[in-house]
Amino acid sequence: MLFLIFQHGITQNLTTTVTGAKVTGSLIYPLKATGSLQFTVKVKNNETAPIGNTYSVSIDKPGMFPFDSWIAIDYNSQSIAPQETKSYLLTLTIPPDQADNDYLLPINLTANLSGVQHPVPGKLMTIIVDNSQPDFSVINLDYSTSNTIRVTFDGYDARSSFYTTASPAAGYNGIKTFTLTLKNESGTAIANPTLDATSIPRAYLFQTLEPVKTYIASATAIDLAGNTRISSPINIKTKPGAPTNFVASSISYCAIRLTWDAMPGATGYIVWYDQSPVVTTADTTNSFTGLNPNTSYNFKVRAVNNDGLGDISSINISTLPVSAPIFSSTLNICGESQTIQVSPIVDATSYTWTVQYPLTVNGGQSTTTSGNSVVVNTNGKLGASSISVYANTSCGITSNPSTGQLFIGVPEVVSNYPLAYFDGSTYNDVCNLQQITTDMTINGASSVYWSKTTSSPSNISWWQPGNNVSFYFYNIGQTAVFNIYASNNCGVKSYDFGFRSIDCGGGGGCNIEYTLSPNPASNKVKIVPNISPPCDEILAVSNIEGFVSIYDQSGTLKKKVKNNQNAEVEVDISALKNGIYIIEINNNNKSIKKTLIVKH
User: Fold this and answer.
1) Is the pTM of this model over 0.85?
2) Cα–Cα distance between 413 and 495 in angstroms, integer?
3) Whose CB among 82, 133, 369, 583 lies 3.0–4.6 Å from 52's, allowing a Cys bridge?
4) What is the pLDDT of residues 463-521, one digit of tens each?
C-alpha cells in the first residue's frame, strides 16, 4: 500500500512534454518510408527543494516495442533535481517499405530513486506514415489576356490531412506546396514557380507572355511527406493584343472615323465610346455619327476571336467646334453688285446669307448657296447696310452667324462734333495750350491717313491716334490745316479742316471751375466742371485728359483717378474714413484744389 502511494507520487512529480517544429499535440509530422525527423521530450521534476528528491530519469525505449527500433535517443539517462527540466533528443526514422498507417508510440519514463526503478507514464504519440501520392491535383484557367495567364489550383492528400487539420500552418488539405509549370508550344518550360499551399487565393499570374500563343499549364501537388501528384495539363491560348495605331482618320462636328492596325489572330473587332452600344466589325475602321460638336469622347477598341476578347486600346478625341464664317473679301460695293466671300468651313454643305435694305441677294434678302460666296446687288442705292452668314453642315448643325457692315461706294467720313470744312479762310476756334482731338467716324475705309498741310507759326505738336488727329497750339492766333484721306477699293474721300487758337481766359486756356457734389459726402462724390462761354463750345471738340488726387490732412495720397477736364467724373470714397480731405484736380498742367468732408 505504501509502495503504491509512493509510486503515484513519483508519477505526479515528473511531467512529460513532447515538443518540436514537427510536432503538433500528439501528432508527429507525416513521414514516408526511410524518412526521418527529430523531436524533443522534456521532463520536469515538480518537487520542491530542499525536501524534494533528485531522480535519475530515462525514457523507456523497450516499452516502445515494436517501434523501439525506429527511435534513437541521445543521453537517455539524466539526473533531474527538484524544479529542474531536462531535454531528451529523439530521432525517428521510418523503416523501408513501412506501410501507410497511423502508429501509436508510447513515450514513458523510468525514474531511479535510491536504486529502485519506478515506471512513470508519459505521452502517447501518433506516427503518420504516408507513402501515397496525393489523392488529386488540379489546375484551372481563371482568365487570360494577350500577355498574361491566371490559373487557380487545388489538391488533397488524405494521409497528411490529419496533420494539417491539427496544424493549418503546416499545409492545406495535407498539401505542403504546389509547383506550377508553364510550357510553350514547343514543350519548353518557361516558368516553374513553387507556391505555399496555405497562400490564399491559390492562384498565380503568369506574365510577359506573347499574344495568340498556346501554352500548357500543370500543377504538381506535394504533400507533407514529400509525395507528389501532377495534374492533367490544360491548354491555354492568350488573347489578341490591344490594337495598335488606334487613331482618328477624320473628324467633323458630329462624326469621327477611327482606324487601327489588323491584329494577329483576330477574327473581328468591337469598338465603342463612353456608354454607347458596342459595334462589331470585321474591318479595321469604323465611323461614329450623331455626335455633338466640340465634345470630347473616349473611344475603345479590342480584337475578338474564338478564344474571347483581346486587350483594349483607348483614345480621347474631340469633335470640331462649329466656327463662325470669317469674311475674306472687302465689304465694299463699288458698282451695281459685288461678290462677298467667307473662308470655307470644314464639312459645310451650304451657306445661308441675309442682307438688309437696300441690298438684295438672289432677288431677295436671304438665300442659301452651295459655295462660300454670294453676289450682293445694290439696286442703284448708296449708303451702308449689313450682311450676315452662317454655315450649314452635313450633320444638320449650323454655325454661329458672322455679321458685317457693307458700304456702298467710297468711304464715309463723319465728324461727331460740328466742324467746318476749310475753304481757305474758315477756321474752327479751339483753346490755346490745350490738347485737341477730333472725333471722327469713318465707314468703309481700308485706310485712313491724316496730314498737316499748313500751320502758322510752325511750332505745333500733332499726331494721329487711330482715325483722328490730335494737336496742341502754343500761341494765341496760331492756325493749322489738317487733311484726312480715307480710301477703299472704290475710291477716296478727302477733306481739309482748319483750326485757330484763341484765348479762352487767363491768357491762354479756358477758365474752368469745379463743384463737389454732395459735400459732405459718404460713398461717392461727383466733380462737376463749370465752363463759361465761349469755352464751352470750343472744349466740346477737345479731349484733354488729367487726373483727380485725394489727400488726407497729412498730405498722404489716398486715391487717384483719371478725368477729362470738360466732363463730369464720379469718385468712389466709400473706403475713406470720416474727416477732411483735399481734392486736387489737374488738367493740362493746371491744378485746382477743393476741400471735401467725408462723413459716413
Assistant:
1) no
2) 9
3) 82
4) 998 999 999 888 888 999 999 999 988 889 999 999 999 887 644 555 678 899 999 99
